Amino acid sequence: MPDQTTVRLPDGVRLHVRASGPTDAPVTLIMLHGWTLDGRTWRRQIDALTAGSAGPVRMVTYDARGHGRSSSTRLRSATLAQLGDDLAEIVREVAPTGPVVLAGHSMGGMTIMEYAHRHPDEFAARVAGLVFVATTAEGHTHTVYGLSPRVTRLIRLAETTGAGLLARCGEWHPHRPLLRALRPTLRWLLFGDSCDPDAIRLTTSAVARASLRSIGGFRPSIGAQQRLETLAALGDVPAAALVGDRDRLTPPPCAESIAAALPGTELTVCPGAGHMLMLERPDEVTAALAAVLRRVAPEQTGSAELPLAA
């Protein structure tokens, strides 16, 4: 069972943190979840790396402010910039020494970019590897939901208006009967050709834990962020970027632009997969994590033992 603890941030928000692996491991892997989700979305990767790795790796997940089991956030703090600052605090608290590999899904990947932008010296000193899963450095530039431009504009208008309304709903949470009714919509929006019933149940459960303020409040900065220049300044840091070719939120051009900005990036496009790659393509995501860990510390992470995709 992972250790569970709380990290208290300077503004009083408490982040729920889960960690497994030896506390004195030479490498720490911190995995960040996506918008409206929580750290449980990485559980298949944690299980696989725990079972397959002969080398010591500390693995950490946490729930972002206003998500999962972390405490609520003020509306003015529901921004990617704040999440970047939160990540800086997490690194200082849970991995005060040694190299760190950061992996981020969707909003989590954008959080990593914001950390690099807002804390460049700390980032350069601590971060030895990166894994970007179904994320973007260009806001909603490429998000067309797999639909025509006209329909996309209408959906974005409705989404933006709805997000503003939700942001003012405070700490209410989505009603579970409503989420059950919306499950087919979540299935269409977040998953590709096939979907494990357990995966959609976990996803729905995570959305139910996010406050309406968080669901609506983070949307503007997610849509506006532009961080390709930040990535380009990172040089040849070992990195991986994964995307599903059925991803309606962060389609392949998002990952392609990340890989173009970061020359050390291994790009993987998963056929038939959507936005929830950790659940849809767990082996491929685990293999990408293992590959970056090998590149960061091959003599310390059991390079021959880390799992590869089946």
Automatic annotation (TrEMBL):
Cross-referenced Pfam families:
Abhydrolase_6
Carries keyword Hydrolase? yes
> Could you name the Gene Ontology cellular component terms for this entry?
membrane
Task: Write the record's keywords in alphabetical order, separated by commas.
Answer: Hydrolase
Question: Per the record's keyword annotation, is Amino-acid biosynthesis included, yes or no?
Answer: no
Upper taxonomic lineage: Bacteria, Bacillati, Actinomycetota, Actinomycetes, Micromonosporales
GO MF entries: hydrolase activity
- What is the organism field in this record? Micromonospora pattaloongensis
Q: Where is the AB hydrolase-1 domain?
A: 29-287
The protein in question is named Pimeloyl-ACP methyl ester carboxylesterase
Source organism, top-level taxon: Bacteria
